[in-house]
Design brief:
Layout: H1 4-44, E1 87-89, E2 92-94, E3 100-102, E4 104-107, E5 110-112, E6 118-120, E7 123-126, E8 128-134, E9 141-144, E10 147-150, E11 156-162, E12 167-170, E13 173-175, E14 179-182, E15 186-189, E16 192-194, E17 205-209, E18 219-222, E19 225-228, E20 234-238, E21 246-251, E22 254-257, E23 260-264, E24 273-278, E25 281-282, E26 294-297, E27 307-309, E28 312-313
Parallel strand pairs: 1-4, 2-5, 3-6, 4-7, 5-8, 6-9, 7-10, 8-11, 9-12, 10-13, 11-14, 12-15, 13-16, 14-17, 15-18, 16-19, 17-20, 18-21, 19-22, 20-23, 21-24, 22-25, 23-26, 24-27, 25-28
Transmembrane segments: 6-30
InterPro entries: PbH1 (IPR006626), Pectin_lyas_fold (IPR012334), Pectin_lyase_fold/virulence (IPR011050)
Organism: Streptosporangium carneum
Amino acid sequence: MADRPLFKVGITTLVVGVVLCVVGVVTIVYGRTTAEGDRAARSAAPSADSSAAAPAPGQKPARSGDPSTGKWPNAATAGVPQNVRLVESEPIKITEEGAVIEAQDVKGDIVVLANNVTIRNSRITAGGWWGIIQRKEASGLTIENSEIVGNGVKPLEFAILNYGGDITVRGNDIHGMMSAVQTRHGLIEKNYIHDPKEFPGSHVTLIASNEGSPIGLPLTIRGNTLLNPLEQNSCVSVYQDFGLNHDVLVEDNLMAGGGYVMFGGKGKYGTPYNIKFINNVISRRYFPKGGSWGWLATWDARGKGNTFSGNKWEDTGEPVPLPS
């Protein structure tokens, strides 16, 4: 008789366990069905970005914060094309004339020692003084449709540094560096240069010329998106660090940020000449004056051919004046 209550409890526990099991199975089935229904409903519902046009086949989607109009280079139109498959590579030193580096995922830098080299459809992730450098004995380097980015650990001083002759930098996505391009001459066009990374003691200028070309070549900066949310130093700087500057055309770019958006070339080596800032759009997305301090510094109106005209504010379309 003493065993009967234990038997009853055992039967009761068994029945309750079976009931709970059945409820659990029903709950799992119901939960799975409900979750699948929710996912289907979410995929069917329009997203917050559904009003934006879908990227064309083979085109990368735009990122948040990209320029809002199709005219300006952005993440969808600059850099490595979406359909390119990259092959991982160690740092590269190029000594062959006319060499073509294509579809490489380079972990480290590229040093160019030969003429007429082309780097295209590649990604360069680097830290140190440069991502790509054209040495003084080389000329004719073309860098196009590539991504140059700092590794985020070691500061990348210059994404592209040119000590040599002519250079073309076109259609690239450059970011995560302290400075993007430093050269005295060449063509820099249709690039998306954005989100520089500030390290202690860094000097952030997206595109800089430290003196005029010693071999008589002009510098043209045209059709780029240049976004510098930091309070230093500029989007485009025409300096006189090492000599008189001259023959620089900065035309039809979208620019925002830095201490000043632009530096105009005035300095200790004399009166700069043929410095032209024409038909650029200056954005106030980061600072009310375009840059933290203003939109233009070191402008010298006395120089022959120096021109500041047709520049407009992005938000109003009103002319950007010379600073008073």
